[in-house]
């Protein structure tokens, strides 16, 4: 097929994908993903699709399609997209940016037409669709009548050009749907629904064997694996009950029965290492933990016992296996639903004693049985050694493996006690006792232990080093974590306090404002706080940013909203008065004069920002991200 000719006034999807925010574009694309409409918190109907053309398909970025989102008060006003392979034409839709990715958003009526896939002929028959004989098109009558022959021909040619992609996407969608139906059917057969039973862990408490698709529950288990991901933590827990809807982790002993060595046929390569530590089979649940819950996992290790509250269980698209999700709460976004159980402090009269003890007994029974299995199960040729020397060697190996298994069991018994010890007390900066801490600064979350800046900055990447499920070690650029520190301010930016507020741009508005496009085009720009502080511990220093919300918390309720500080001397004086409490004589300090400020306790958040491709720091950064810190939860009294 020759080069596709874009109709007049339209751009290809690659151009639209790379357009600046708030650019209006007219595009034609093939639908490759459909998410059914749902009702938003503003009582609007939202529909999301992804569209693709030949240019975007062949691009290095965005080859999965451009996301298009529609908001309508009336559900009948949403586009009539019926299936993957439909072609949609959109005129004058704005491109926005959400989480760094482009998205086309329509929350007011725009001209749009859908060509159903079933009505699109092969290009050889396009000659039959001329003049008044048009292919079927869905939309408002005026929009349908406005379609030109050039636009119709492009829709037909584009659909044909992407026919292979359409078939692959449709087949994949059907396979996922079939897997989901099969998993849901097996869920009903395997796990009969049980009534809520009394539990000290709440009425929503369930064993892993009891949870199913699209359910919410509290679960308790032992951490068997945990590592950071790009959005939080991948957490693996087990309560040693079986659920055949979760991932199955094969037992190396059973694999060894089919293959004597994990290495190659002639054992030229070394013995392969076990990828999963156990327990094996359908005993381990994977939980995808996001902020703020992921923060609690920074203080939790393998072998600890955790209680996870309000976990949403669903069958994932990838693999069609049951996993748990822990996302921020809509009402209490900072609430953490991960609790580390202090097993060493439990006693027989403690209300949690019985259920935790039952879990420990199930675990010990599993590992005890497996230790015996490890000692007794051997491939046939090992069970029948041909010489006394061979029998002696086999017995020594069996004793060695049994001892190793018992040592592992003993370590697991002790880990809960080791990891539940309270963290060591971190001393304040040198020469500064607790009584010397600034009493006019209040730090929230006193339950977070104070840590030194060296530990927070983690120059040696102790906390930023992790392992993949295959055992590879790598360093992550940042972790979503919160700390408490004792520091003092030794510098600030910008140097002129009149620049502590800036005029925000409309594109900085949040996702919730997608549904009000008129406010985007006529948005009144507002003033917001933003400045940075250089904090010092004993020797180390770190720049932290103070954004609008955290600055409002820092200043307290008696501070007015920011304005143009260059024309508001009263507000500038108020800001200086507040900051003087925080940093003493820093602003007015003469050359050679000592700082008069005292250390204060504050909360810090670690996070990461994606660097631009042309940023010089990209070459030395990890995964293109830069570690940053933000002040939060701190108030000047």
TrEMBL record:
Chief place where the protein resides: nucleus
Skewed-composition ranges (Pro residues): 421-430
Q: Which UniProt keywords apply?
A: Chromosome, DNA-binding, Nucleus, Telomere
**Ranges annotated as biased composition (Basic and acidic residues):** 398-416
Task: Provide an example Pfam family for this protein.
Answer: POT1
Gene Ontology MF annotations: G-rich strand telomeric DNA binding; telomerase inhibitor activity
The residues covered by the Telomeric single stranded DNA binding POT1/Cdc13 domain are: 10-143
Region span, Disordered: 370-438
Q: Which domain of life is it from?
A: Eukaryota
GO biological process terms, alphabetically, are: regulation of telomere maintenance via telomerase; telomere capping
SMART domains (alphabetical): Telo_bind (SM00976)
User: What InterPro entries does the database record attribute to this sequence?
Assistant: NA-bd_OB-fold (IPR012340), POT1 (IPR028389), POT1PC (IPR032042), Telomer_end-bd_POT1/Cdc13 (IPR011564)
Q: Where in the cell is it found?
A: Chromosome, Telomere; Nucleus
Q: Which Gene3D superfamilies match?
A: Nucleic acid-binding proteins (2.40.50.140)
* DNA-binding as UniProt keyword: yes
Which cellular component, as a GO term, is one annotated location? nuclear telomere cap complex
Its family remark reads: Belongs to the telombin family.
Name of the protein: Protection of telomeres protein 1
């Amino acid at each position: 097929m020759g080069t596709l000719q874009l109709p007049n006034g339209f751009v290809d999807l690659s151009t639209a994908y790379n357009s600046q925010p708030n650019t209006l574009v007219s595009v034609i694309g093939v639908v490759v993903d459909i998410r059914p409409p749902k009702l938003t918190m503003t009582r609007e109907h939202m529909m999301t699709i992804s569209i693709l053309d030949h240019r975007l398909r062949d691009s290095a970025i965005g080859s999965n399609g451009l996301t298009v989102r529609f908001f309508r008060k009336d559900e009948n006003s949403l586009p009539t997209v019926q299936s993957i392979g439909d072609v949609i034409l959109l005129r004058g839709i704005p491109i926005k940016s959400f989480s760094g990715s482009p998205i086309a958003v329509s929350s007011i009526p725009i001209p749009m037409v859908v060509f159903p896939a079933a009505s699109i002929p092969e290009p050889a028959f396009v000659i039959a669709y001329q003049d008044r004989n048009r292919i079927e098109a869905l939309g408002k009558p005026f929009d349908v009548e406005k379609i030109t022959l050039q636009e119709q021909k492009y829709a037909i040619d584009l659909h044909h050009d992407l026919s292979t992609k359409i078939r692959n996407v449709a087949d994949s969608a059907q396979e996922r749907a079939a897997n989901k139906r099969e998993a849901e059917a097996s869920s009903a057969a395997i796990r009969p629904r049980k009534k809520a039973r009394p539990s000290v862990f709440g009425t929503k408490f369930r064993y892993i064997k009891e949870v199913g698709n699209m359910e919410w529950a509290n679960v308790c288990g032992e951490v068997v694996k945990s590592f950071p991901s790009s959005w939080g933590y991948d957490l693996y827990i087990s309560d040693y009950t079986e659920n055949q809807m979760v991932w199955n982790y094969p037992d190396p002993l059973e694999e060894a029965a089919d293959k004597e060595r994990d290495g190659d046929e002639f054992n030229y390569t070394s013995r392969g290492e076990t990828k999963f530590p156990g327990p094996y089979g359908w005993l381990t649940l994977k939980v995808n933990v996001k902020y703020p819950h992921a923060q609690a996992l920074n203080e939790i290790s393998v072998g600890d016992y955790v209680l996870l509250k309000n976990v949403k269980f669903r069958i994932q698209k990838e693999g069609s296996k049951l996993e748990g999700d822990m996302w921020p709460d809509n009402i209490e976004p900072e609430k953490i639903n991960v609790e580390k159980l202090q097993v060493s402090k439990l006693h027989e009269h403690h209300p949690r004693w019985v259920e935790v003890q039952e879990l420990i007994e199930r675990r010990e029974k599993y590992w005890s049985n497996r230790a015996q299995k490890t000692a007794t199960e051997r491939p046939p040729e090992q069970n029948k050694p041909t010489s006394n020397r061979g029998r002696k060697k086999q017995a020594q190996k069996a004793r060695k493996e049994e001892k190793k298994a018992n040592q592992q069991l003993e370590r697991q018994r002790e880990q809960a006690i080791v990891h539940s010890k309270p963290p060591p007390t971190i001393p304040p900066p040198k020469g500064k006792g607790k009584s010397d801490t600034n009493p006019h600064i209040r730090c929230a979350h006193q339950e977070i232990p104070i840590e030194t800046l060296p530990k927070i900055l983690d120059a040696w990447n102790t906390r930023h080093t992790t392992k993949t499920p295959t055992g590879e070690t790598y360093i992550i650029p940042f972790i979503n974590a919160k700390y408490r520190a004792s520091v003092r301010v030794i510098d600030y930016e910008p140097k002129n306090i009149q620049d502590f507020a800036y005029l925000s741009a409309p594109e900085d508005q949040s996702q919730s404002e997608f549904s009000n496009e008129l406010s985007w085009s006529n948005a009144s720009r507002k003033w917001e706080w933003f400045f940075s502080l250089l904090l010092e511990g004993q020797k180390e220093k770190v720049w932290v940013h103070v954004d609008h919300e955290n600055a409002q918390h820092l200043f307290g309720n008696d501070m007015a909203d920011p304005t143009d500080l260059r024309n508001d001397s009263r507000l500038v004086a108020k800001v200086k008065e507040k900051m003087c409490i925080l940093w003493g004589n820093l602003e007015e300090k003469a050359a050679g004069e000592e700082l008069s400020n005292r250390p204060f306790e504050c909360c810090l958040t670690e996070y990461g920002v994606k660097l631009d491709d042309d940023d010089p720091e990209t070459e030395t950064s990890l995964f293109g991200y830069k570690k940053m810190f933000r002040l939060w939860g701190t108030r000047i009294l």
